[in-house]
């Protein structure tokens, strides 16, 4: 008859759970009001300063994950050079950094350089006071893109007119 006691009787776990006082779970079944819940603060990308973006991109620039995918590496280089160009208006040394970055870009991925890359590179070189280098780049760009009016405009604005 012991088998009947096993079938119809309570198991030890049910017996222990049945006798226990579940005071530690008090209040878990009640949900707090939605006004009381503290929502996580999302980081606003617009409030992120240009310098923070530059440091993040510089850290990402030469990581193995970025270097293993050329398209991703090119994207990071373009963004970083654009940010250097924006910040160069405040501090002059960022123009030299951007010019150096475009030199690396030309060495690593010469076939991926587009017309806009050439335009920005010439502008950065001229702003970094590397006029001879900018004229040489303009000559190369004209061989790649013959008869393009944007290079004429760039030559007029950046290389012939003396800026501060």
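Sequence proposed for the structure above (164 residues):
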């Amino acid at each position: 008859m012991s088998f009947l006691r096993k079938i119809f009787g309570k198991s030890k776990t049910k017996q222990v759970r049945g006798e226990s006082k579940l005071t530690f779970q008090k209040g878990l079944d009640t949900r707090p009001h939605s006004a009381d819940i503290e929502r996580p603060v999302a980081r606003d990308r617009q409030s992120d300063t240009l310098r923070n973006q530059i440091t993040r991109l510089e850290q990402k620039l030469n990581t193995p994950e970025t270097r293993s995918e050329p398209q991703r590496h090119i994207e990071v280089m373009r963004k970083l050079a654009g940010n250097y160009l924006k910040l160069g208006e405040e501090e002059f040394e960022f123009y030299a950094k951007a010019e150096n970055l475009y030199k690396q870009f030309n060495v690593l991925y010469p076939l991926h350089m587009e017309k806009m890359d050439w335009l920005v590179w010439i502008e950065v070189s001229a702003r970094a006071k590397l006029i001879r280098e900018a004229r040489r780049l303009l000559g190369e760009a004209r061989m790649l893109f013959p008869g393009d009016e944007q290079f004429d405009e760039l030559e007029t604005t950046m290389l012939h007119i003396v800026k501060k």
